[in-house]
Automatic annotation (TrEMBL):
Its cofactor is Mg(2+). The lineage of its organism: Eukaryota, Viridiplantae, Streptophyta, Embryophyta, Tracheophyta. One of its GO terms (biological process) is cell division. Pfam families: MMR_HSR1 (PF01926). This is EngB-type G domain-containing protein. Residues 140-320 form the EngB-type G domain. CDD domains: YihA_EngB. Belongs to the TRAFAC class TrmE-Era-EngA-EngB-Septin-like GTPase superfamily. EngB GTPase family.
Length: 324
């Protein structure tokens, strides 16, 4: 496989912040639009690339999961997203050319790479709650941290990902909501539940403490492959979410934006918008904080939209990380 010439040749360290900052591509703008409708079950198919002037759409929809381990999921009909090539997230060590259409995860801007494999979850267990980075598990396994405003749907998403109704409740037990909670997946990697932020009735000083230790975790956890920042797509962008995203961007912490509650489609009064519009608005608002476009993905814990896609994205980041 030919490599893009602007991939760095310097050795890659396992430190998390190097993964995206080194490999975020800033492709030259091209007049291509890509319909991001590929579901994981369409691995053999290709996404559609058309000139940006065209308004035709492709259709690709499947209700089955390709991850095999669990029962079929039913995904609602989705409007294909049109994504310009320069707005795609191209994983490291991945070739993209106009001759060969990229494979894009449905409801996201994420191009699939050769590292996407072993995505299914076979086992998940709660391991420990930590109050500081140094107390976190030290076996060196890669991990993904879920964080978001209180009520964004973090516990629901975590449960949807591991398909266990009660697993994330462990982190909701008294005394654990302010901790770094580690869940071991397939005995080989971790999902990490971080304290929700912006909880209105939390005393100011307590909020400060959360900020302090989660920031320390983001900056110093060497096995952190990517933060998954959860954003509620059923409402317009909140200031605190924009601040969080900009902090991560400015500190070059690898980040994937997970838009939650994408099933909530009803237009609200007072200019409420559809999830797709909120998703677009949010990206425009944070774009100035990022050198290149971060990966994002639309989800719903109600319909399981995005579940397989999240797992595939995690698998390709994880496998790349493990190989470098
Ligand atoms: P957390 O505080 O971030 O852990 O949020 P929860 O997972 O407890 O969810 C907060 C509220 O949002 C609950 O009432 C959930 O039922 C609801 N919720 C969570 N995820 C979704 C979703 O994907 N779609 C819809 N419609 N509601 C959701």
């Amino acid at each position: 496989m030919a490599f893009l010439t602007h991939f760095p040749v310097a050795p890659i360290h396992h430190h998390s912040s190097s993964l995206f900052t080194r490999f975020f591509l800033t492709p030259k703008p091209k007049t291509l639009l890509i319909f991001a409708t590929l579901s994981p079950s369409h691995f053999s198919s290709t996404s559609t690339i058309i000139p940006s002037s065209s308004s035709s759409s492709s259709s690709s929809s499947s209700s089955s999961s390709s991850l095999e381990t669990f029962q079929e999921i039913s995904l609602p009909e989705e409007t294909p997203l049109q994504i310009a090539q320069e707005k795609l997230f191209i994983p490291p060590d991945t070739e993209i050319s106009s001759e060969k259409s990229p494979r894009i995860l449905r409801g996201s801007n994420i191009v699939l790479s050769k590292y996407a494999r072993d995505a299914q979850i076979v086992s998940a267990e709660f391991v420990k709650s930590s109050v500081e980075t140094d107390a976190c598990p030290s076996d060196g396994s890669p991990e993904f941290a879920l964080v978001g405003r209180s009520n964004v749907g973090k516990s629901s998403l975590l449960n949807s990902i591991v398909k266990r109704k009660k697993l994330a409740l462990t982190s909701k037990k008294p005394g654990k909501t302010q901790c770094i909670n580690h869940f071991r997946i397939n005995d080989s990697w971790y999902l990490v539940d971080l304290p929700g932020y912006g909880y209105a009735s939390a005393p100011h000083e307590l909020k400060q403490d959360w900020n302090k230790f989660t920031k320390d975790y983001f900056l110093n956890r060497s096995t952190l492959v990517s933060v998954f920042l959860l954003i509620d797509a059923s409402i317009p962008a909140k200031k605190i979410d924009l601040e969080y995203a900009s902090w991560l961007g400015q500190n070059q912490v690898p980040m994937t934006i997970v838009f939650t509650k994408c099933d909530k489609r009803k237009k609200k009064k007072n200019g409420g918008k559809h999830p797709e519009e909120n998703v677009q608005d949010f990206q425009e608002l944070i774009s100035k904080y990022f050198d290149s476009v971060p990966p994002w993905i639309m989800t719903s814990s109600l319909t399981n939209q995005g579940r397989d896609e999240i797992l595939l994205h995690m698998s390709q980041l994880r496998n790349y990380w493990l190989n470098h």
